[in-house]
Amino acid sequence: MQIGTCISVALVSLTTSIISGCGAPSRPVPTPVPSDLDRLTSLMTGTFSSEAQSREDERFFHIRLVMTPMWAERAGTWLYVEQAAAGSFDAPYRQRLYHLIELGTGEFRSDVYTIGDADRFIGAWRTSGLLDSIDPDSIVLRDGCSIYLRPGADGSFVGSTREGTCPSSLSGASFATSEVTIRDDVLISWDRGWDADGTQVWGAEVGGYIFDHLSDHPPR
Prior knowledge:
Helices cover 16% and strands 36% of the residues. It is of the alpha+beta class.
């Protein structure tokens, strides 16, 4: 056998060995596409603030909004929610649980619950397991006050309560309404109370509160 022929055979054998050892090229594993419920949960999770709006318009207060997931083993998504005015973050004026449910029609419902012995859970995200210790029997559904949300073409979620279904007696109101827009960087919430004649008796008059999404996590 000629030396050139030997070299060619050796190269062919080596190439075959390399190809056989490497096998077929691997296909990239596709990245899972988050569901709309996952996206909605992500957009609603973290720390939000209306500070920038309050600086530009004195008709709005500086409010901090915190929402954090809990009860991961239960159906749907559960969020613990605190709202507090600047300077009183350790004394929130509102504590709620939100239960996000996918309705199967492209629509989502956020049920709103009050919490028994709520003061015990102020800043509860700082204590491991405290939120999960909330007794399900101690929460009360605010019947008629659920917010219905639909995803928009731009990735946002927009929704509101059903008109006239959410009872309220604050400042002489007969019912309350809530309108919500949720985007990547901001959450806009417009809560108003109305008397039996349909006259607004509480809430912002010129538009909703604009909460900038400061962090994907609650404050430390």
